[in-house]
Design goal:
This protein is an alpha+beta fold and 178 residues long. The chain is built from 3 helices and 10 strands. Strands 1, 2, 3, 4, 5 and 7 form a 6-stranded antiparallel β-sheet that branches. It is elongated, with a radius of gyration of 21 Å. The two termini are 39 Å apart.
Length: 178
């Protein structure tokens, strides 16, 4: 289940009014959008998103930008859309579009699981893993006996605790690039 977060960027609009005396609200900088999204998402999540990266945003209805942030143990991409502008009040909503584990988040989880099963060696995952039930990526474990190709499958959704299934890569040699 994806969660939509809505809020008002009144504070940012107030800051914009200090810059000039015009009735027009200047565009929001990426940092201002990031601060507003951090505040809004932080109200509805167990932890505040950090780090966060956003684009700038025009204070016009239907204007949009994208933010990427880490929320707990996963990464999330979200559209930030201006839903209303009334005077200096700008309302927006945050619509998550993708929840995933980056390779940097995924690799240690795979290594931890393999270590708990008594296996050792370095793990390399080259693709992010979308947290949707059944989505699969491939990793390689380097062992003393040589490389082992692994299939890593998401066994949890975007809002569930992260659960992975790790198995030997079951693709045939022609699909495996050999």
């Amino acid at each position: 289940m994806r969660r939509r977060v809505t809020g008002t960027v009144t504070a940012l609009a107030g800051l914009a009014l200090l810059v000039g005396c015009s009735d027009e609200i200047p565009d929001f900088t990426p940092a201002q959008v990031g601060d507003a999204v951090t505040e809004q998402v932080g109200r509805s999540a167990a932890t505040a998103p950090s780090p966060i990266s956003c684009g700038g945003l025009e204070p016009e209805v239907d204007a949009r930008t994208t933010c990427t942030y880490v929320l707990g143990d996963r990464t999330q991409d979200a559209d930030v859309v201006v839903s209303a502008v009334e005077g200096t009040d700008v309302e927006f909503r945050v619509d998550p579009t993708r929840t995933y584990l980056t390779t940097t988040q995924l690799t240690p989880l795979v290594l931890q699981e393999l270590t708990s099963e008594g296996s050792s060696g370095e793990v390399t995952c080259l693709d992010d893993l979308d947290l949707e039930l059944g989505i699969r990526v491939y990793c390689t474990q380097t062992t003393d006996a040589g490389p082992v190709d692994l299939a890593v499958t998401a066994r949890s959704g975007a809002t569930d605790p992260v659960s992975l299934e790790i198995a030997l890569d079951d693709r045939d040699a022609s699909q495996n690039g050999q």
